[in-house]
Amino acid sequence: MSAFDDLLAFQRQTEALSSIAERLGWDQETVMPRGATEQRAEEMAAMETLLHERRTDPRLGEWLEAAQPQSEADARIIELIARDFTRASRVPARLATELARLTSLAQGIWAEARANDDPTDFLPVLDQVLMLKREEAAALADGGDLYDALLEDYEPGMTGAGLAALFDAMRPRLVALREDVLGAERQPQALSGHFPQETQLRLARICATAFGYDWTRGRIDLAVHPFSSGRWQDSRITTRVVETDPFNCLYSTIHEVGHSSYELGIDPDYAFTPLGRGVSMGVHESQSRIYENQMGRGRAFTGWLFKRMSDAFDGLNIADEDAFYATVNRVAPGHIRTEADEVQYNLHIMLRFDLERDLISGRLDTEDLVEAWNARFLKDFGIAVDRPANGLLQDVHWAVGLFGYFPTYALGNVLAGGLNAAMRAAVPDLDDALARGDAGPGVEWLRENVQRHGGLLPPRRLIEEATGGPISPEPLLDYLEEKFGRIYGL
Amino acid sequence: MSAFDDLLAFQRQTEALSSIAERLGWDQETVMPRGATEQRAEEMAAMETLLHERRTDPRLGEWLEAAQPQSEADARIIELIARDFTRASRVPARLATELARLTSLAQGIWAEARANDDPTDFLPVLDQVLMLKREEAAALADGGDLYDALLEDYEPGMTGAGLAALFDAMRPRLVALREDVLGAERQPQALSGHFPQETQLRLARICATAFGYDWTRGRIDLAVHPFSSGRWQDSRITTRVVETDPFNCLYSTIHEVGHSSYELGIDPDYAFTPLGRGVSMGVHESQSRIYENQMGRGRAFTGWLFKRMSDAFDGLNIADEDAFYATVNRVAPGHIRTEADEVQYNLHIMLRFDLERDLISGRLDTEDLVEAWNARFLKDFGIAVDRPANGLLQDVHWAVGLFGYFPTYALGNVLAGGLNAAMRAAVPDLDDALARGDAGPGVEWLRENVQRHGGLLPPRRLIEEATGGPISPEPLLDYLEEKFGRIYGL
């Protein structure tokens, strides 16, 4: 056995254990009896302790030093294991434990604060979380930029400055489009009615099948928040049902099918290695978004969906396919990120990105956070935050320490824009298939150009090879202006 | 930290990991996508490797030597960890791996042999399994009896000779009762009709509730074979549905509720210690059997069930409660253990017990096994084995190396008989409650006298304290003769 073989064998086990931990998380959110929470917490803690021990095992350092890669894939495996080893080793165990304890506590306090619509008790604990995250960032950064050090967990190779430049280039056109759309004379009709859960779930399965979800390696269940979970031969999705709004269930499903399909589309040879998973959160989100938006909310697929929904629900309050297309893509003022449309979504992200960079750098204190949030929201969205639950308290991310995560959502949209332009050029008859309820040709292109590579290529190189050029916001902005210009008659 | 504290902390993690492994097994049998088998095999192998490392960790030896128990519970914890440590350490890693590999292979060959109704390919691999099990038994026995060494895994403290004496004392009365019942003039009517799955599952939930199943710490799902899985705050059951035979689903459910209730009924302070699980397979089976048979198939509960089933299925082909009671307890000739009634079940076990003792001791070769099985079956049951699938090939146990497991089923019946006599004496109005569809008073007595103790008391002492006397087959035999004598008018 060479050092590389030893490294790989050890890593296979770690990957298997990490996959088990993810499966336990799925179980907890879908099927676990509600009285089992304490037991599951102890089980998860045991797994996390074990995984942390393995990620910082001193033998890793020795194997990594001695390992001789025989291929590009070998070299990348070594690089990825080394990156995790270095990062895990830099964070003192005491800090990791304290962060786990505090964020678990903070999540409960956040949930209560949101339910009570009062941030008073939440802000002090958020401040403690922030202090620990800054400490963690300092340990990880090793003298470099604090925010970049955190970002590296979600979007390796990307920097806060790079994202800021990208977002600054997008904001004017997004703000202008938003104003034009909301001020337009032509306004799409909203869908209304009662849409029974069973029928929604049946349609969700049909939509997942339309987007090529592999039911032999997946399943769909109900959960409070939609998510996808697992990889290789077993990537499951969840959805939720609001009986007044079937789009919530259907487009959540298509979105999660995008995430799961990425994991299931990775070269099976990469299973149980660090190559066997999506390469970054931004690339992951590009897959979910291109399934959901560029394909799922396009004119072709919504035409097919209109017929399906009309049949399933015995008619809709929408006249025809064109009107339905406008309804699906209706832009309305609102405070909530997760309910935002394609036009406004990225503005929600930019707000959070700027605020969290300021929090991490120390330019902004948590005690001034509500005011900063509300002022920025009024500036970007033209409406005031009416209550804290519609402002700072709407997202759990910061409570659980996910600083650096938000921008990957907007980056995913940018990448989806670029991939969509390349995919449309390469698959000119894609809309014909989508109009028949078949996303297959698009899925196939994405599988070939993005998904199958897993972690082999770094995000930037992966996207550049797939799109044939550097990452740019132009394709997304052109697509949005074109699409919403037509719908709103601008 | 004392040595005992160290030992306990280490064991808590091991117990958590072992509970996770069991949850993965549940997932595999109920909800796992069918394409995930290879991945799950690798995940389970990683967990097993890890658990084996922990069970044989040399630090355990040091802590066990230095640990100072402060209570009876502490002493028992030390005893149980030491027992597992000694046993795990005696089996060479090479042998454990080989056994895992071979039994996994043998299970597939057994399934094929049963489907093809042909033992030719199965017997050679069974022989290999047997050789490895004899080797394992020799390592475990450390000079003692081979069969006893294997039995210790399932029924600690029990010996093959002790079981043989118990069974020999039972056989004549069981054989005589069987002949009387089958030859009786009065024969109960069989249930017939079509019983839709959804209605069966609804009734299964009602039955589980009647037996006090705690839905906040459990759930029911469909699986190929009924089983219960998990402990402490999360013990789930499965059932199956045969649309011509609702008793299969309903009594499997009550049986598994018995197993799960045992785990859920253990003192919560014992969670994550070796005290926090059922103390032996025999005691476990005593709980499932007393729920299923002595309570579930009694006159009182079947009277209640008759009304429920008549309503749910819009009438039955059975006239009244008394006839229904006879139908539920109908004794019919048959080859299959899992379909056997209370009268014949133990005879099936005794056959297997005698044959497997002879296999382990070397008195019987696998090449003579089919003949030995068939001859014994004819002798005990008066009918010939018509085909291998109805004979040797019906059970998976030996293929997967479970030698020493079968007798715990019959022992469970014996223990259930003794517990039932004590429970009836202590809870004279139990039948009144059962007639209202409420097993609560019986469950409560079992919880107090058996379940809550978990692994604290060794099996024999547990049963002796609960029943107020030594383990004896008399209460079971008296109960069977009385019950079936009445039903069959003997």
UniProtKB/TrEMBL annotation, chains A, B:
Record-linked CDD domains: M32_Taq (cd06460)
Entry superkingdom: Bacteria
Binding positions (Zn(2+)): 255, 259, 285
PROSITE patterns found in the cross-reference section: PEPTIDASE_M32
Cofactor: Zn(2+)
Protein name: Metal-dependent carboxypeptidase
Reaction(s) the record says it catalyses: Release of a C-terminal amino acid with broad specificity, except for -Pro
